[in-house]
Amino acid sequence: MNVAVIHNILLRLLRLRRLIGLALLTGMPAGVLFFLTFGNSEQDIRGFYEMLNITVLTIIALPVTALVLASAAFGEERNDQTLTFLVTKPLPRWHIALSMLTAATLATFAVGGIGIVAGWVVAAVAVGDATIGLNTTVGLVVASLGYSAVFVPLGLLVSRSTLTGLAFIFIWEFIIGASVTGVSTFSVFRTALSAYGDVGTVTIDAREALEGVLGNVIPGVGGAFAKVGVLLVLSLAFTTWVLRRRDLANE
Amino acid sequence: MVDGSDAVIVDRGYRHYEGERTGSRGAVAAVVREGYRRVLGLRRKARRKVLPWFLISLALITVAIFIGIHWVASSAPIGRGEAPELLPRYGEYFDLISVIALLFTALAAAELFVPDRVQGVLNVYFSRPLNTDRYLLGKLIALASLILSFYLVPQLIFHIGLAAVDDSGFLTYMSENLDVWWKVPATALVYFAVHASVAVVIAAFLPRVGAAAGLFLGGMLILNLLAGFFIEGTNLWFGRYFGLIALEQHPRYVRDWIFDIDTIEHLPERAGFDPWTSLGVSIIVFIGAVLVTRWQYRRIA
Amino acid sequence: MTTGAQHVTDPTVQLASLSKWFGQKVAVSDIECSFGPGVTGLLGPNGAGKTTLLRLMTGVLVPSSGSLSIHGENPRANPDIYCRIGLVPEDEAVYNHLTARQFIRWSADLTHVGDAAIAVERAIRAVALENAADRRLATFSKGMRQRAKVASALVHDPDVLFLDEPLNGADPVQRAALIDLFVRLGAEGRTVIVSSHVLGEVERMAGRVIAMVDGRLAAAGPVAAIRDAMSDIPRKIRIESTDPRALATALLTAPFVTGIAIEANVLHVQSAEPVQFAYMLPEAARAAAVRLTRVDPEDDSLESVFRYLVDGR
Amino acid sequence: MNLVETTSLSHDYGGTVLALDNLNVEIPGGVVGLVGANGAGKTTLLRIILGLLHPSGGAVTVLGTSVADDALGLRSRIGYMPEGKCLPLDQTAADFVAFTAELAGIPSTEARRRASETLFLVGLHEERFRYLGDFSTGMQQRVKLAQSIVGDPDLVLLDEPAAGLDPAGREQMLDLIRRLREFGINVMFSSHILEDIEQTCDWVVMLDAGRLVRNAPLEPPSDGDEVSVEVIGDPELVATALIERGAQTFVDGQVIRVVHGGVEDVFDLVIEALAEHEIGLRRMGTSLSSLEDLFLKHEAERG
Question: pTM (2 decimals)?
Answer without folding.
Answer: 0.80
